[in-house]
Amino acid sequence: MATAFLSPKDLAAAIGVSESSLKRWVDSGRLAVQRTAGGHRRIPLQEAVRFVRAEGYRVQDPSCFGVLCGGNKDDAVDLDQAVYSALLAGDAERCCALITTAYLAGSSIPSLCDGALRSAMGRLGDLWRHGEDGIAVEHHATSICIQVVEQLRQFLSDVRSEAPVAIGGGTSDDPYLVPSQMAGVVLSDCGYRAVNLGPHTPNNVLLTAVARYRPVLVWRSLTGITDFDEVGTDLRALAGKLGDIPLVVGGRHAASAALSAGVGVHVVGSMCELAAFARALVLRRPRTS
């Protein structure tokens, strides 16, 4: 993925400091930069995001981070409602601005997925009961949510080629796009090379990908399943084929399906729990010389 760059002037304007101060911080090593052929400083977008979050600066002009409109102070107080209102109105630009601003202010990707995005999509998911218009709104909101999560992905540092691999997707009868996409971005945030196969991924397809990518973690999204016993049987068979590779399941129906599957399945109740499991797994892996 191509890296976007900011000039010191752009970042200084974004956080409300002088350009000379920012250049001083660059020269002292607080900010990593690259130099153009002409010797000009250029700050990778991911480094600018890291700096803003680590230093706790409030972003006053978020346009250089790809945010075309800002929020207001009340949005921070009730982010869940603000995101819901933006999705309900089909306002992708505002929704991206709300989530990006919250991330730059220090909220983690897992907490944003578990909080404002999950809350809003849950409320919008009930609209299908109210007719075709509700279905259209929910489908549009889903497409916006996918854009928002991908916006967060661009702020992450490039994953090293030797990074551990995680792979997963929804079960063969699970049609939901967003949960598995969120899992992939959360795992990328944890330093994994995450391969999201998306919804409707049967065991044989997943196992073919496992053989190809050799992951250290496999996930299953269980949000829209109907036959818990059948899915439990599939999970049990998958866990057996994976051997020592942990199988992590999450989603609305994860606990019920895992109970049917029996041993060999790790259940996480949130993206924050997935992140904690993934980070602990990396710490337990033997170091290679």
**From the 3D coordinates, which CATH architecture of the largest domain would you assign?**
3-Layer(aba) Sandwich
What percent of the residues sit in helical stretches (DSSP H or I)? Answer: 40-55%
Decide which structural class fits the backbone. Answer: alpha/beta
Rounded to the nearest angstrom, the radius of gyration is 21 Å
Q: Strand portion, in percent?
A: 5-15%
Task: Please state the average pLDDT score.
Answer: 89
Brief write-up:
With 289 residues, the protein is an alpha/beta fold. It contains 13 helices and eight strands. The strands form two sheets. The protein has a five-stranded parallel beta sheet, with helices on both faces. It has a three-stranded antiparallel beta sheet with strand order 1-3-2.
Task: Note the main attributes of this structure.
3-stranded antiparallel β-sheet; alpha/beta; 13 helices; 289 residues; Rossmann fold; Methyltransferase, Methionine Synthase (B12-binding Domains), Chain A, domain 1; 54% helix; globular; 8 strands; Multidrug-efflux Transporter Regulator, Chain: A, Domain 2
